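[INFO] parsing input record for Glutathione S-transferase
[DEBUG] input buffer:
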Amino acid sequence: MQTAHSSYSHRSIDTLGVLALQWFYQFFNLGIIMSNDSNHTDNGYTPPKVWTWNPGNGGEWASINRPTAGARHEQKLPKGEHPFQLYSLATPNGQKVTIMLEELLALGHNQAEYDAHLIKIGDGDQFGSDFVDINPNSKIPAILDYSDGLAEKPQRIFESGAILLYLSEKFDALLPKEHSTRTEAMSWLFWQMGSAPYIGGGFGHFYSYAPYPMEYPIDRFTMEAKRQLDVLDKHLANNEYMAGKEYSIADIAIWPWYGNLVLGNAYDAVEFLEAASYKNLLRWAKQIESREAVQRGRVVNRTWGEDHEQLHERHSAADIDQKLKDN
Ligand SMILES: N[C@@H](CCC(=O)N[C@@H](CS)C(=O)NCC(=O)O)C(=O)O
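[DEBUG] output buffer:
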């Protein structure tokens, strides 16, 4: 092993050869830097003093990504008859809200009736003027609450975690009442909000969407993704649900990301991540998946997959009934 004080004479001929090559390539700016491990090369990119936007460098999402916020075009949003108007897409963040609304309806909270309108993020609908008024961050899901005297001035809610919390407080449901268990549910809810970007924007992006496979980011985010799967697996070894014995918004937040991942519904990464080894997490993922409200919620605003899984818009329970009957 080399130490910081090693002299060149202690280095192998191979190492000296690599150093000479590095110098040669750097000197002639040939764009290849080699380390002692010849698997490690990069494209010689050196960040400029000030970053400038290069449209087209965003992989699969290149056409919609820009470094600025705000509305890009005028776009009216449709409005249905129900108290809640949801503007979304069935990504994991979108599924959290439709599963929650379906759970509330299953519990008999008729005031949770909703219209689910489709926001096509690949087409840039999230940058339309009406949508940006509901979510200045231009991301689905976003919801308007027109119920209980809010008809004139609906309450906007954005950020999926905030929407779950708003709905559970409004209907006094799916958040444990006992203080310590409730606190546990909140800890896991916020854990999910902070952790999932490493799965979606990190692991998922570099494993599935980046223009070509890159070892460094895939290694970095796979390490983190597996660490998070292990966090959940260890917790679920001793807990039926995330907050203990009670199903809650913590499960509803976590399942669409981590349940879908280990069940093979996201990023096609079951083998790569050795998902079968997270036995407690898989047990929980299947248990949540078998809930009727989860099966109903996951198809809403979905525009990909099998036909029987795709319900682009939802305006009544019958829309979902019909879709699931098609299966
Ligand atoms: N922290 C937000 C994240 C929402 C989010 O990232 N939404 C994605 C789809 S899963 C989106 O709308 N992306 C469109 C874009 O980035 O332009 C939440 O949980 O609501």
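[INFO] Residues 179-290 form a domain with the Glutathione S-transferase Yfyf (Class Pi); Chain A, domain 2 fold (CATH 1.20.1050.10).
[INFO] shutting down worker
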